[in-house]
Amino acid sequence: MKLDSKALATTFGVVWGGCVFLAALLNIIWPSYGRTFLDLAASIYPGFHPGGIRGAVVGALYAVLDGAVAGALVAWIYNRVSTRASSV
């Protein structure tokens, strides 16, 4: 069975982007919520500074791109390994 790379990339992107966006929004309401996680994300994503709506959107966009690349990579690796394993 092969994984659909586009579908997995889209799924990973939406889920990871949603997680970062939700954490950033909740951090606006409760400033201590997810602070360590958001500081880690800010150290990875240039231009992302938690603490406002603009920061939440920027972080979510970076996370969508990051998640999509990760999902495509996972699907590609899985398809390569599963093809070799089934031919043995």
Give a written overview of the molecule.
This protein is an all-alpha fold. The protein has one domain. The two termini are 15 Å apart. 80% of the residues lie in helices and 0% in strands.
Q: How many beta strands in the DSSP annotation?
A: 0
- Radius of gyration, rounded? 16 Å
User: What is the number of helical segments per DSSP (H or I, 4+ residues)?
Assistant: 3
- Biggest β-sheet description: none
Kindly state the percentage of residues in helix: over 70%
The tally of domains stands at: 1
Tell me the overall shape. Answer: elongated
Poorly predicted runs are: none
Strand fraction equals under 5%
List the secondary-structure elements in sequence, H or E: HHH
The structure class reads mainly alpha
Overall average pLDDT: 93
Distance N terminus to C terminus?
A: 15 Å
Quick description:
The protein has 88 residues and is mainly α. Helices cover 80% and strands 0% of the residues.
What is the topological layout?
Layout: H1 5-29, H2 35-44, H3 53-87
Features:
88 residues, mainly alpha, 3 helices
